Hints:
Helix content is 65%, strand content 3%. Strands 1-2 form a two-stranded antiparallel sheet. Strand 3 and strand 4 form a beta hairpin. The longest helix is centred in the N-terminal third of the chain and has 39 residues. It is elongated and about 65 Å long. The chain starts with 13 loop residues before the first helix and ends with a helix.
Amino acid sequence: MNQQAPPDGNTTTGPKALAIISIVFAMAIMFYSLRIYTRLRPANKLDISDYFISGAVITEIIVFSAMVAAVTKGFGRHNYYLTAKDKVKIFRCLFCIEVLGLWVLSLARISVACMLLRLDKAMFASWKVILWIAIIFQLGAAFGSNICQLIRCHPLHAMWDVVPHAKCWDPIESWIYGYVFAGISIGSDLTFAIMPMFFVWKLNRPLLERILITVLMALGLLATGAAVLKLYYLRAYNLTVNDSLRIMVVLFIWCRIEEFVLIASACAPFLKSPVEQILNRFGVPMFKNKTRELNSLHSTNSNSNRRHWYGSKKDGAPGRAEGSDGEANLSGVVGEQVALEELRHV
């Protein structure tokens, strides 16, 4: 099919796009590095949430490398100036990005859920089921996306090469797939940005500290904004148009920004201590635990309704509570102290 040369000539938007995402990628790597540093110093406190976010970062490095490779091959140029061999190489890189990109998002969200489960074991048992459902849903979404990508074309290499008599999804089916998973991303980003607030505001901590932790955890709302823009630009995703490799650049920019910001937001809560130290240099006092005084309780009601509070035993062991009121009070305070200790490690 004859095509007319584009009016702006053999130009490219690839390097500009690469410069934009490189800045955000560097920010995500900085947040991750600071998180790992705070988790290793002064003692090793790495847990499963750190391993999941590390998996997300490693996967993102592969995705970013594929993006660089696609740009060097001509991603961002007009199709008119690209050879068939160049297009095959670019589409192969983009296919790799699509397969791994959703895993970055899922692993980062699972990392947040695992971090919340640490607090949940201390205080918020009612949330445990919700968090586990969220983890399973993220794994299912990632696997489901990969299955869809693997069955979009038969044979598979028709995704990046011209194959006679190949059967691929038409543009409408591809758009439906894209909109469904973009909607999942928006809902998931919003959920994981808001969910931690329900945990933090129940803690017996100074107001300023709770605000700080909430703001750090709410950085995921920026990922939600990127996902919304990704949904808007998804209309450009059509491999059959004449200038697809030029048009799709903006969509891939917002996809990468969502991934980078989500990694950064998953690491942000672990930067509470460095931020606290910086605030202290500007005169903000260091955050301290609030204390609750437990008054001794003696009642001389009937034998069926007696409640006693013992401050200490004869052998110096910790005190105990008898009766439903004492047990509930002690359980709530101890549970909150355990949660505070977990949050201090964050």
